[in-house]
Amino acid sequence: MLWTEKYRPKNFDEVLGNIKAKKEILEWTEEWKNGNPQKCLFLIGPPGTGKTTFAHLIASEFSDSIELNASDKRSYDAIMSTVGEASSSMTLFGSKLKLIILDEVDGLHGNDDRGGSRAINKIMKEGIQPVIMMANDPYSKRITSFKSKCKVINMRKVHTNSIVSFLKKICVKEGVEFEEHVLRTLAKRSSGDLRSAITDLEIMAKGEDKITAEDLELVSQKDERSNIFDAVRTILKSKNPTRIKGAMRQIEADPSLLLEMVTENIPREYEKKEEIEKAYEMISEADIYLGRAFSTRVYTYWKYAYDFMSVGVALSKDETYKKFARYTNSSVYTMLSKSRSKRDLQSRVAEKIGEKLHTSKKVAISQFPYFEVMFQNDDIAYNMMMYFGLEDDEVKLFRSRKIKAPKKSKSKKKEDVEASKSKSSTKKVESMETKRDNKASKTQKKIKKADSNSDSKNNKKSPEGSKNIPSKSDKKAKKNENNDESKGKQVSLFSFK
Amino acid sequence: MNGPWVEKYRPSNLNEVVGQDHIIQRLKRYVEEHSMPNLMFTGPAGVGKTTTAIALAKSILGEYWRQNFLELNASDARGIDTVRTNIKHFCRLKAVGAPFRIVFLDEVDNMTKDAQHALRREMEMYTKTASFVLSCNYSSKIIDPIQSRCAIFRFAPVKGTQIIKRLEIISEAENLNIKRNAIESIVYFAEGDLRKAINILQASASTTDEITEDSIHEIVSKAKPQDVRKIVNKALNGDFLSARDLLREVMVIQGTSGEDMITQIYQEISRMSMENLIEENTYVDLIQSIGEYDYRIREGSNPRIQLEALLTKFLLKGKAD
Q1: Quick one: B232 and B112 in the same domain?
Q2: ipTM of this model?
Q3: pLDDT tens-digit profile of A35-55?
Q4: Which residues of A285-296 are buried (b: 16+ CB within 10 A; e: fewer)?
């Protein structure tokens, strides 16, 4: 049994801190039991301050309860079907109250939990049964609509001294020798989160008969990223499977993220080629199970993946290293964020090309190198651009130079000259607008100007009622609305009108 | 506006389809009978699965084939919802101007098992109004119930002689000046993939008026992931971290696929062995590893992680330090 469960308060007296909150909660519970319906109780506060503990203690005062937390789907239908009926109907023997607990309401997901807040509002309105809601973030937009209709109770962080004394109590009960300053460090690090302090203590102390400052290395800082680093550190530094499994239990990271982090740091810790090779064999194995879990949707395979990437990797080293190695975040993530715009572009182009060539994006991308070669040829590039309907910035994926207007359209050039005469004034506006632009966008502008010129001609013609041309210019205008960089052009269009 | 030759010269009827003669024979019988079972086309890339499916749809559905043909080919936008809604909407309506409707699903092996199961239900429900044509690279990744509902046609890589014939037809139509050995060299690099062959031809034609064996080599090496040689050498020299960084760059930023990478690595190792840069025994060991990791990648693991693991094998087999 986890210590957080084992030492969870059994009655209101045992709860640490939050005395005022405790009093209010007790009053609320009493009122309900005396047959006076109360507003919904809303406990707001950081993790580990006792919200869930209170909720469960209150539940034990009532005959029955239902709980929905973030792991359940919480769309309108889902909530109404599990809680809805309970909220509006009394049980046969009148006096029985059914407590409804909605945990982590600030975590309602916009999409998956569509209508969730509507359902919660409805339940609160009906108000026949006692409702408790919990949330971490008092400023979350998701909960503003509830706050006014509830009795809000703000939960404070637990004071360090209270945490220390509680940890001491546990150590004594578990028969673990301790140094006071170690417990104090643990308590401070938890920054008022009693649960995490207990979890940390458990990792350090379970199965040991004493804890020292060195053990602090095993656990720590609370935000998830650093937790992951700690797990990674434990995996790479230790050869003790129990300890490693303990560290693994503590983190709640997505397995592929953890895999990525362990993988990244293997060669930073391990020095022998054989060790790196062996560790990577384990990584490969873990990854295979992640793949299998994904494709078969059998997520119980994850446990094998976790074991391979933790214990498997840990035992790949001959002996532990006594050095300090700087661990880093996986370079893959930095690369991904740096190259996002390029990859977006790539996928946009691949979609356009794939649609014309009847292939998936993946197949289209595999043919990109050939297109890159073809796009070096002006005529073919122009031809392809029109065929696939690529925008100027999309063409840049294949060639850096702008595409020269094809030789055949001499008439267009004439238009250029004509239009530029008639429009010299608008041009000035344009150039002022875009003065700070660099060369690349200048070349773009040129193409666009050609565009806008033909547009302007179309505008002249359109009153005469030629069907084709106006629709074409419409299309172009539409395209340009999508194009961020088309400001210059839009200016010219307006001023022309 | 002609666009890419792969599209311009895509066969529009079954007679023109290159290779796969016995398959075409069978399909023609369906056209004569105006009925067909659900079909599954399986085979490597660029052998004509999509082309055959479209050509078949045109011949069997006749004039109104477009209205009665649903093609879902974006392998990434095909979750269970698409299967349930799009296909259902399409199949619910009776065919107009054609004997029935055809749903063509590309790369079914990339669909999740759940989506495949949903698909299986659709295939059962609409037998009267629609037939399904599925295509995939590996039939082993298709759930059994779907396989048992389909007539399975296995497409073989297109034979060299047939690729040559096709390339010659295109070269003539496009008025190309191309040497016979240049065509043979394209065939060598295409490895039975006609789409690749035609793209190599068009790429070469775009750079030069006279296509020779050398210009083909130049195109192919341009189109190759450039850094594979560097990556392999770094790993062999014991510099694992920089080999890994470069690998990540090529795969993450440039978006080269795992399959492409491993093929290139294989070719690189082969070349090194031929030039006596690595010993025979080492060569065999490395090929063993490459084969194993190739399999792991195709089985559906994360290609980048598997390739990094492969690099550690190179690390061990590298020049002794």
Answers
A1: no
A2: 0.84
A3: 788 888 888 888 788 888 888
A4: bbbbbbbbbbbe
